[in-house]
Amino acid sequence: MTPKTVACLAGDGVGPELMAAATRALDGVARLHSLELDDVHLPFAGEAVTRSGHALPRSTRTAYRDADAILVASPGEPALEGVKADLHLAWRVARVHVGAHRDVVVLGPVDAHANARAIARAFSCAASRRGRVACVGDDAGWRDAVERERSRWGGMAVEQPSLGEVLVRLNEEPLGLDVVVAEAHLVSPLVDAAAHFVGSGAAVANGWLSDRGPGVFAPGASQPDDVAGLGVADPTGMLFTASLLLAEGLKRRSAARTLERAVGEAAKAEPPRDTRAFTNAVLELLPQTRTDVELHDEVWR
Fold first, then answer.
1. Domains delineated in the chain
2. With a threshold of 0.90, does the pTM exceed it?
3. Which of 65, 81, 90, 300 is most buried, by the most CB atoms less than 10 A from its CB?
């Protein structure tokens, strides 16, 4: 199997600790699923400024463009916007974990030019899950694109609720939602509201995807830098993000599910108070949470 390269942008503060947790988990799940991963650690943000005086050095940009996926540990860094602007990103996906083994997927285009692509991905995603998709948008072109995609799928439960209706359901009954696809300007409000209702940005993993070139993956919330070096940063969101990278960036959905389940089980057993201890618990759970249905990787391309 051809090795896959993951460009790791840790930054400074707690970034290196969170990235270490993620790469350990990726290495563990890769060995379990016979994947060959090569993680390349690149200067980024504050770390890069210290070394070279620039938050995104040319060497970093060249390296991550050649990678298969990009993993970012510091989502609050302004340099992340520079990374995204550097790539041909078309659509966004966020997984909001609302229980140990349950999540809501929110998708949307980066801009209106990618509406059809994002809607198609949402229907594909729903087909591999519970077959339910909620399409949120008022623009006539958006609704036409939804109807065109609906006509291509049989047996799919499709609804077109308002933004307000979805927000109420995210608050009161999130498990009633499966996949939500929304117009570009509505995606961030939906993800932010879902994280608020769940009670933690650590429950969110974000990805920005492209049909050509690597996708970018980052947790939904930054960790406070004042805990850097104390070993108490919560790695939950970073580990969920590593799972999303496996699924969407590398198309290894069985490996992604294995890691996602292990993180959920570890979090259910004990809240993450120690970064390394929690990551160790996830690694120990990987054999128990392994998903062996490798054909699942072929379902959603």
1. 1-89+210-301 (3.40.718.10), 92-203 (3.90.190)
2. yes
3. 90
